[in-house]
Amino acid sequence: MHILTIMFIALGLAMDAFAVSISSGITIKHQRFKNALKVAIFFGGFQAIMPILGWFAGYNLREFISDIDHWAAFGLLSIIGCKMIYDSIKRGSDKKETNIMNLYVLLILSIATSIDALAVGVSFAFLEIVIWTPVIIIGIITFILSFIGVYIGNKLGHFCKNQIGIVGGLILIGIGIKILVEHII
Description:
Blueprint (H helix, E strand, L loop, with lengths): L2 H25 L5 H57 L13 H24 L5 H26 L6 H21 L1
Helix pairs in contact: 1-2, 1-3, 1-4, 1-5, 2-3, 2-4, 2-5
């Protein structure tokens, strides 16, 4: 497979992680380099690991994965998005906000945004593509875009503090719906 094709695949896969990184950056109150780095490592790492898992799964799980991947991504992103919206509405009470930097939240978001990469790994197995070069490119591009996305989101978040959790939640739900619609149509 040509390197340019792999880069376009990587960019396509990274777009969900980039959008979620922006919404994550919106919710981070005190932006630090380590927060952007943590999000980028999680998202870039999972985008790199999932194609490897898909590649190894190959033919055995292809039909199973293609039947549920979009539903799993939709469900995970919607749950986190609804929680963010709920926390924003309840902000006046003693309810805690969703902590995007929480390990479990990052894991869920990382899995949800990289499920498509799992399916790409399966297709790489079918095409008999050596997986290591695409995985490195996918991971690096996702890492860079996620790192930048956190900073973009954090800068945007200061302009509309009161509604930002709702916007971030709607973005996550929107990404989940987009993934679902793309696979259904």
